[in-house]
Amino acid sequence: MKYDHIFVLSPGRSGSKTFAEACKYLANYTAAHESRGGKIGEDRFNFPTSHIEADNRLTWFLGSMAERFDDKNVLYVHLSRDFNQTVDSFVHRLRNSDYRSSIIRAFAHGILMKPGDWTPEEEVELCRLYVQTIHSNINEFVKNRPHQLVQLGDGGTSFNSFIDSISPEGDIDRVKSTWLEVHNAR
To answer: What's the Cα-to-Cα distance from 169 to each of 30, 61, 146, rounded to whole Å?
Structure first.
């Protein structure tokens, strides 16, 4: 089936950049990673038709997504990676990145409202909480909406099933092989 919009939801650190890179070889969809970041209001959700958007921050806008897209031809992809690998990647990001827009920093100090530093043990626990919370939010959101689970690290099985289900056109072999490459590693 051909979709008007495909939204890839994840906590981040789960292959969303790789997902978008692979889908760029589809001829009948455009694909991007965090293409509307920094936009507000209607502009934040002004995605073109026949588009695949991979953006972990969409998980903070699920109510707005429902309002805008529930009556549309939309597929949601719940992108997942091994839980502990995802947590470890976020711990590394929290400890080693000064990136101002880091979602894990926003969660650690804004959402959880900790103005000071976390202990190393607390950092691991807050990253676990973040990943668990986002997956829980996604699971609840997609429960009654068209969706598929794609698992990073299953050798391409779930990604290939996703691709085969969206009436793909273009260099499908390149799409599938690009998914197996690493993009946006630590």
So the answer is: 11, 30, 21
Q: What is the pLDDT of residues 19-72, one digit of tens each?
A: 999 999 999 999 999 999 999 999 999 999 999 999 999 999 999 999 999 999
If 0-12 CB within 10 Å is exposed, 13-18 middle and 19+ buried, where does residue 28 land? Answer: exposed
Closest CA to 112 of 128, 89, 130, 93: 130
Binned at pLDDT 50, 70 and 90, residue 185 comes out as low
The answer to whether 20 touches 33, Cβ cutoff 8 Å, is: yes
CA–CA gap between residue 102 and residue 67 (Å, rounded): 27
3-state secondary structure (DSSP) of residue 4: coil
The rounded distance, in Å, linking the Cα atoms of 104 and 126 is 9
- pTM for the model stands at 0.95
Span between the terminal Cα atoms of the chain, in Å: 35
